[in-house]
Amino acid sequence: MSKLGELGARLHHGEVGYDFVKNRKIWYGISILITITAIVGLAVRGLHMGIEFQGGAVFTTPKNTSVSVTQAEEHAEAASGHDAIVQKLGDGSMRIQIAGIDTDKSDQIKRELSKDLKVDAEQINAELVGPSWGDQIANKAWQGLGIFLVLVVIYLAIAFEWRMALAAFVALIHDITITVGIYALVGFEVTPGTVIGLLTILGYSLYDTVVVFDSLKEQTKGITKQTRWTYAEIANRSINSTLVRSINTTVVALLPVAGLLFIGGGVLGAGMLNDISLSLFVGLAAGAYSSIFIATPLVADLKEREPQMKALKRRVMAKRAQAASAGEPPENAVPDERYADDDDADEPEDTAPAVVGPRNQPASRVRGRGRPSGKRR
């Protein structure tokens, strides 16, 4: 852990680092490839909507049911004539979901299941879910997502600038698309828990992005007053200085989510835990990736299109070419926290030339200090 802390301190002070911004085209390509795969999976396989969105019935068997999941699925499909989803719960009971049935059909299926599963019909709990409730949940989720994105863009545009707001918006869409695409490819059921998970990951993704943007905003104050670093180089420094913090935050958040996904969902067989934890797990990982590899490099791309940043880059390149021709060692491209105190800042054009030769020293203000007390002559 001490080595990790030392690495974090060296990254923060710019002693070491990786050029994320320079290799941004590679990260863009990887993100585009993953996003296209997610969209294709979504278009081909589609989302497996839960019973809450389609309407139907949910049957819960008593504990320690003797039949297997496969047998229960076969019995449920034979009794209803519809596809059934069977989940084994942690207490030994089973959760059987059948979409597109009404109350009369539900009672008939319940009686047939009691015979096939060899349990009392009164011990099978049946719940009917109407499709209108699912439509209301979906509409509220879309409204919440739209309001959230609008407010985030407005806030970031005010607190930072519109380029950062645009980059954060692209990163959020990137995270949502990948998460939804993974759901389509894996075939997990989309439930209200999934919606909760999707809305939750937006906050985590935005948190890492704002941390990097805040560092970038602080380090680019007075950037045009110096000729040592371009905007892209300072953006890269911001990523490196917050890299360990972002990794630590993501790992700490992923560990309990992984426990929910692999232990809660896999071992205990809890369906709702699967729905929430998968969206959180994929979303957190995608959010950390987009904050480092997408959002900040995209801001650097947008900023370096400005005339001021283009002029700054030309001055920086000219100064480095001049230093190289003079045989001077290259400067370490690590910006200080404040540019106002930079020794290499551009000097004003009317700066007076340096005086060569001896110069008169100002009279000492402590003249007479150390003399014995008494009247001066």
3D architecture notes:
This protein has helices at 2-12, 24-44, 51-54, 69-80, 103-117, 131-159, 162-186, 192-219, 231-241, 243-265, 271-303, 307-325, and strands at residues 48-49, 56-60, 84-88, 94-99, 125-129, 189-190. The protein is an alpha+beta fold and 377 residues long. The protein has 2 domains: 2-49 and 133-308, Multidrug efflux transporter AcrB transmembrane domain (Multidrug efflux transporter AcrB transmembrane fold, Up-down Bundle); 56-129, 2-Layer Sandwich (Alpha-Beta Plaits), CATH 3.30.70. A 4-stranded antiparallel beta sheet has the order 3-4-2-5. A two-stranded parallel ribbon has the order 1-6. Helix 6 runs antiparallel to helix 7 (162-186), helix 7 runs antiparallel to helix 8 (192-219) and helix 7 (162-186) packs antiparallel against helix 11. The longest helix is centred in the last third of the chain and has 33 residues, at 271-303. The protein starts with a helix and ends in a 52-residue tail after the last helix. The model is unreliable at 332-377 (pLDDT under 50). GO terms for molecular function: protein-transporting ATPase activity. It is found in: Cell membrane. This is Protein-export membrane protein SecF. Residues 320-377 are annotated as: Disordered.
